Amino acid sequence: MHSLPHDHTGARVKRLRLERHLTQQALADLSGLSVSAVSKGEQGVKPFSPYTIGQLARAMRVEVATITGQPYTAELREDQLDVLIRPIREALDVYDLGADPEITPRPYQLLADDAEALLIAVRAGEIKQAATLVPGLILETTTAAHTAPSHEGWLLLASTYRSAYDVASKLGYNDLAAIALARMDWAAERGSSAALGGIYRYMRALTYLRDGQYRTGQRLTALGLSILEQADPGHERDVVTGQLHLGAAVMAGRSKDGATAEGHLAEAERIAAVTGEAARVHYLAFGPTNVKVHRVSVLAELDEYGEAARNGRAVQVPADWPQSRKSHHYAELARAQMWTGDLDSSFQNLLRARKAAPQQARYHQTVRDTYSGLEAARRQLPDSFLSYGNWLGV
Predict the structure, then answer these.
(1) pTM score
(2) Is residue 329 assigned to a domain?
(3) Residue 169 and residue 65: Cα distance in Å, rounded?
């Protein structure tokens, strides 16, 4: 069940509830939410938070994507992105077939340059460009790795799988993202990289975060931190360890465990003071700025929206920070401001999210839900608000 014209998360919850012959009271009891939260969410008066969506999904035994309406197929078709998904899926399927006799791979350095360009494109928000290029590079790098197996070759292949994950997750194809992650782990094991093993656990934990399975996500981040202890001490290990702590902080915040979240944030902050801004190390964007940005996200997850908005306004985003990370931060700040009633500032940050990375913002669930919340407020908003909704397709 995916998004329909004029559809929204609340409407989908109501439809699913009625299909299961549940009253609002029954759904509230099953999900641990108040009847008021269910009622206002269904009407679109107050958007469901990621936490409440996870609770509702478990209560009705559906995937979170069924409630959020991802992937947004109509918009993907309009942007001609839907036709790029099948080639990625096919490229991921041939990982264990050995070298393709019809492919003659280029030298390693040329493949490595293209793999890095893909990572950069994703972080610049150029999702369509990355989606177009990643299938062919996966196939070529797969043949190269099987033809002359080496530590570097397998890790290069793992990098292309990671880019496939990035594209799939940003476009809402969570099943495909999970397959790409499994392939990344498969290649990383052959390349014997503890750092990539930690990154894999971090990214896999994020898939469970999106699905509302916080306990599993927490177990994965703990496992990732344990694996990283096997890596050689140094800058790389510190950066990946710090990023795992940030992921664990958001996971704890989503599960309403403020003390644990603060512990992970404090440890990430301590590490960031040593590493400094390390945006290019595995392109994780780790550093003091990312710690501050994650603190905003954690506060929002804990429903401390006023504090999240105050912290968010104080963040000074470096000019050379990845556009995708800027866009995500502005979306999170817009959500917090919407909940505090600062509608004008919230919409301004939605505009900033679009300006920073338009292709990402168009398919970002937080952007869409925040827009719906602003629309439901039924207050005076700029004329550009309607055009923004048309652009989103809602």
Answers:
(1) 0.89
(2) no
(3) 11
